[in-house]
Specification:
The chain is of the alpha/beta class. About 50% of the residues lie in helices and about 10% in strands.
Length: about 500
Amino acid sequence: MSYTNQAFSGAPRERDGTWVKEIELTRSSPGGRSSELKTHLNEEASKRVGVIGSGDFGRALAGRLAQAGYHPTIGSRNPEENRSLIPAGVEVSSIEIACRADIIIIAIPKGFYHTIPAHLLTDKILVDVSNRTAIRNPEPISQAEYLSSLFPNSNVVKGFNVLSAYALESGGIQGSKQVYIAGDSAESKEKVSDLVRGAGFVPVDLGALTAARTIEDIPVSVFPAWKVPFILNIILFVFLYALSFAKFQICWPLTWSETFLWELWNHIPMDNMNKTLAVHALVSLALCYLPGVIAAWVQIFRGTKYSRFPNWLDKWLKMRKQLGLLMLFAAAIHACISVAIMSPQYQGVVYGEPEEAFIPLMKGEGWGPKTLSLNNTVKIYGTEKMDWRGECFLITGVFGFGLVVILGISSLPSVTQTLSWKEFQWIQSGLGWTSLLFLCAHDMFYGWPYINGPSCGIPSSFQYALYIPGLTILLKIPLVLPPLSYYLDKIRAGYVRGSKSVSPSQA
C-alpha cells in the first residue's frame, strides 16, 4: 500500500509509511538521512492539525481540512462512540494524541475550556473558533482572550468562527469566503492564515487578539447593515399609510356625505395599501439618488473631493444599496396588486367613466327562488379601450419597474463580480435615473387631473409623491449641464480649487 493510501488509516500505518519513505531516501543517500527526508518530515508535520471537540462544527472543519490535504485528528473523550460520525479522511483519537499537532483547533464551548490539560497545550497554536449565543457580550473580554488567559504558554488565534458547519461542508458557497483572524503572535497568525488559505478561504488579519471582540460580534449580529434602512422604510410607510387613511377613510366621508360612508373602509386592506406602496416606492427610489446629488454639491461648494462628507451624509451614501432593494420590494408588491385590480371598476381614470343602463334583474337570496325586479340601474364597464393617458400610465410604470428590477439584480454580488466598474456605474446611475423619470411620469399620467386637489388640507397623493423625486431631479439637472458638469468632472479627477496643479498622487 502506498503512503498516500495509508495516510487515512491511523497512526501506526502512517509511521510505517514514513519508515518506508525513510529507507528509500537512505538508500539513495549513503551519508544517512538527507535534507530531502527532513523537508518531507517537516511538511508532514505542518499538515497535522488537532481538533479538540467532535461537535458539528469540529467535524465539519476537520472534514474540510482533510479534503484540502491536511491530516486532522479529532480529540474526543469517547473516540469509539463518535467514530461513526467522523468524515472520511479524519482520524478520531484521544485528546492527548490530537494535541501532538502544532496547530490545535479548540472547537468546544467556552465553559469547557478549563477541562483541557494545560501541559498538552504548551507552546501550541490554539485556534479559537467559538461564538457567543447572545448578541451582547456580558463580559469585557472576548472568548479568545479568555482562552488565552487560561493557557498563557500558548499562542491563541481567533479564526474560522464566521463560518458555519454548512458552509464548510458545502465548500463555502454560503455567505462570504473571508475568514477574519486576530492574535498577538505574528508567526502564529501567519501559520493560521496558511491553514485558512489551504481550506479554500481568504484570511483577513484584523490585528491583535483584542480584535476578537469585533470578530465574535459578526456571527451574532442580525442584518447590521439593514437595520437603519429597514427602520427608515417602516417609518416612511407608516407615515404615508396614515395620510392615506386620514384622507380616504376620514376626510372624504366628512367632506362629501352626511353619513360616515363605512363602505369606504372596505378599501383598507388592498386599495389603501396599493396607493401607499406606490408613493413609498417612488419616494424610496429618490432617496437612493438624493445623497449622491447632495454629495456632488458639497464637493462643488468645497472645491475638492479630498474632504470627508458630514457623518449623516456618509451613512446615507453607504445605505443606498439596502434602500434600493427595499424599494424594489415595495414596487414589486405594488405591481402585483395593481395587476389584480387593473380593471375598469378600480381604474375609472384609465378606462373612462362607466355607462348607466336600466335593465330587469332576477333578485333573490342564495339558492332560493328569484323574483323579477324592473328598472334597475347598473353600470357597464369596458365599452371603450384604455385611453391614451391610461396607456402612457401603464407603459411608463412597466418600463420603470423593469429598470428597477435590473438595478436590483445588478447589485447582487454574483452579478456585480461579472461587471466592470464602468458597466456597474452605467447601470446604477444611467438606468437608475431613467427609471426615476419613468416612474415620475407614471405618477403624473394617472394623477394629473387630481394633482392639485387637496382634501381636508391633505395634498393629493399624486402631488406629495413627487416632492422628494422632484427635488432630486431639480438638483441633478445643473450637474449634468455645462459649466457645472465640467467643473465637477475636474474635481472628481483630482482638481482642488485654489491649487495651481494636481499632484500625481491626487490625479
